[in-house]
Write a structure and sequence with these properties.
The protein is α+β, with helices and mostly antiparallel strands and about 300 residues long. It is about 40% helix and about 10% strand. The protein has helices at about 5-10, 45-55, 70-80, 85-95, 105-120, 130-150, 180-195, 215-230, 235-245, 260-270; strands spanning about 15-20, 25, 155-160, 170-175, 195-200, 205-210, 250, 275-280, 295. It has a five-stranded mixed sheet. A hairpin with an 8-residue loop joins strand 5 and strand 6 (about 205-210). It starts with a helix and ends with a strand.
Length: about 300
């Protein structure tokens, strides 16, 4: 389905109920089940999404894929009908599989509808009154990150439930970094704040690993060696492995600059908002999750 086709169908929404693919979709009860996609035919192209999310969740601590095969088919069909790309649909399914925050198929379907027919057309997340308020918030956030961040440019975006449901309790902010930019922060942390060292014997003492100007791929080689030969390194190897494999640097870490100081500033000016986190996130990592909404300075 083309984006234009989706836009035309969204415009057909009248009052509290709209038409999408000839089916009734309630839009005033965002967390209630709906029938979108109920009678959609099976599509072999959906299998790739199902295979992808199954592989991601399988054996992953804290995640369980509970949707039935029929529900997965329906959800992917709904996602495509709404004009969502394959990655976004897969990430919706992945997010719904968290053990601590399981989302059943009916509610997940509604959240996909919310995102595609409400959030995307209007251009701002839930918890904001209007586009102007989100624009002012974006200006302040970008200015504060430029002033207090780690000095590495990335794509600033909103993630999380505020892009999926009006009952969201907080805003998640991520700064998505290309691999080599992420590597800059990891190198900085383990050569200034903490030291990754090799053990060469009591006589000579530990030797700081020369991370120098290593790029992301080279750092991953060191990470693999830390995993395979833990006895060679000091205990900082555990943090090094975590940052390299998780792909996230939380604002509580000194290497992120003073990101944590931004949260109270934002919450002071926007008292109804709760900022859950501001983090540097590696592009393509487990924390680089769709849907997102870009935060840009006006």
């Amino acid at each position: 389905m083309s984006n234009q086709g989706l836009g035309q169908q969204v415009q057909q929404y009248v009052g509290t109920t709209g038409q999408l693919m000839g089916l009734q979709v309630p839009v005033t009860e965002p967390d209630s089940p709906n029938n979108l996609g109920k009678n959609l035919p099976a599509n072999p192209g959906h299998q790739g999404i199902t295979v992808g999310v199954t592989a991601r969740v399988q054996g992953l601590d804290g995640f369980t894929l509970t949707h039935s095969a029929q529900e997965l088919e329906r959800l992917t069909a709904v996602g495509h009908a709404l004009g969502l790309d394959a990655r976004t649909i897969e990430d919706f399914l992945y997010i719904s599989s968290r053990d601590k925050k399981q989302i059943n198929a009916a509610l997940l379907e509604q959240q996909m509808v919310n995102h595609a027919t409400c959030i995307l057309p209007r251009g701002y997340p839930y918890l904001f009154k209007n586009a102007q308020e989100f624009a002012a918030f974006s200006d302040l956030l970008v200015d504060e990150i430029n002033a207090k961040g780690a000095g590495v440019a990335g794509t600033i975006c909103v993630q999380g439930s505020s892009l999926r449901k009006p009952t969201a309790g907080d805003i998640d902010v991520a700064i998505i970094l290309a691999p080599d930019d992420y590597a800059v922060l990891v190198r900085r942390y383990f050569t200034t704040s903490k030291k990754l060292c090799t053990k060469v014997g009591k006589k000579n003492g530990p030797v700081v690993v020369g991370l120098g100007a290593m790029n992301y791929v080279q750092l991953m080689v060191v990470c693999k060696d830390c995993e395979d030969n833990p006895e060679k390194y000091n205990t900082e190897r555990n943090n090094f492995i975590y940052y390299m494999t998780s792909g996230i640097l939380h604002s509580s870490r000194s290497v992120t600059g003073n990101l944590k100081a931004i949260i109270p500033i934002l919450e002071k000016d926007y008292k109804k908002l709760s900022i859950d986190s501001i983090s540097y996130v590696l592009e393509g990592s487990a924390f680089d999750l769709k849907p997102t909404m870009a935060v840009v300075h006006s």
